[in-house]
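User: Here's a protein and a ligand (fe (ii) ion). What would the complex look like?
Assistant: Let me lay out the input and then the predicted complex.
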Amino acid sequence: MPSLNHNIKRTHSFENLYVEGKIPEDLKGTLYRVGPGLVERFGQSKHPFMADGAITAVRINESAQGACKLVESEAFLEEERMGKTLYDPDAPLLRRLYNGVTRSIKNTGNTQVLHWQGELYALMEQGKPVRFSESDLATLGTDNLGIIEGSFSAHPHRVEQLKTTFNFGINGNMIEVFALPDNGNIKILTRFKAPWIALIHDFMVTKKHVLFFIDPAKVIIWRAMLGLKDFTKYFQWDQTEGTHIIVIPLNDPESRTQITVDPFRVWHFANAYEQGDEIIIDAFRHKNIDVLTKPTQLDNDIPKPELYRFTVNPKKKTFTDETLSDVIAEFPIVNPNFIGKQHRYIWMQHYQDKNDNEGIALHDTITGHSKRWPAPEGHLCSEAIFVPKPNNKEENGWLLQLIQDSKKEKSYLAVFDAVHFEDGPVAKLWFDQPIPATFHGIFVPEGPYRT
Ligand SMILES: [Fe+2]
């Protein structure tokens, strides 16, 4: 993952990017990614999860234009006016107490982008969406989409067959599940009480179910309310508790099934789908939340995430798991047209190991084989985005990966043919600066595939 230890150096609207190689003729649309844009502000260094967000976009249509802007939410602008931190652990004690009592937070918008009904939003899991402009990435303001009273998480999933995007939020001790249809109003599908105030990052949706894995990463409320310096200490892994597998049928969302299993954590799911009465879920399994302290490095003392297949039968209340791959990786993706239905391929960001530099890996769930493209030495990678070609073949598409060349001190968007990605990028679209790490992103296609 690109270096986190620097701020975005220059913000700008769309401007031409230098193109090395040839942009595919059928790749047309805009990539949006977000991540921590200011890891140092007012002379204070920030945990990347707490840092103000930067949006990076690459518009592709035979040529390429790139833009970078900070997420300038109302709270961000208030801090700019006051010239000091008001909303995170670096804020003065009285302000932190005030924030805790009034539940005031700043939405940094540093985690993911949502595209819904023609609008773009920067998301952070504790806040409400921050709308921004398609034309120049300017922040347009916080938007509760009409009904969000608590938070709106940063891992929405769109199920193509249902023409609906799903997301969840936390409101007090309740988890709310939102359905955002391509046409029509957002609605709350269901609300349910979590077993404890939990750190839930991602969830999963199939054609028929919503699934949560609620693990024993408990939020220590008094620490969070006081806004203590070390943000990672707001959470405690309680090994005496299990992970709660919650299965919610879309056609009867009040009838939940819960299965409790030995504790483990999932930060990111690849996909899930039904197979008879069973639900198959592929995801990276973490032993606990230790990675929180070093989100972009995997030191030897931190347990490595492993790609797992979980099988849940809500009727029989059974749960099994198996390892799919020993590739040390995270940020799994599938072809977005396969979200909620049976997939074969999982692409992921693999980390440096004793054999290879970091890069992209692919796991074939049928053959069990994997292949990879290790980036050149000193090239720092990020999550890949899969852009389907206009046919139904799962593996046919383009892979886009924003990479920082630490020697040149510039970033480029690498474009790979997904079928032959191990041969390296067919095009590199160069920014004139190093873009700080981005966590997640989306591709919004032009034309008939645009939702
Ligand atoms: Fe994430």
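Summary: The CA atoms of residues 349 and 429 lie 19 Å apart.
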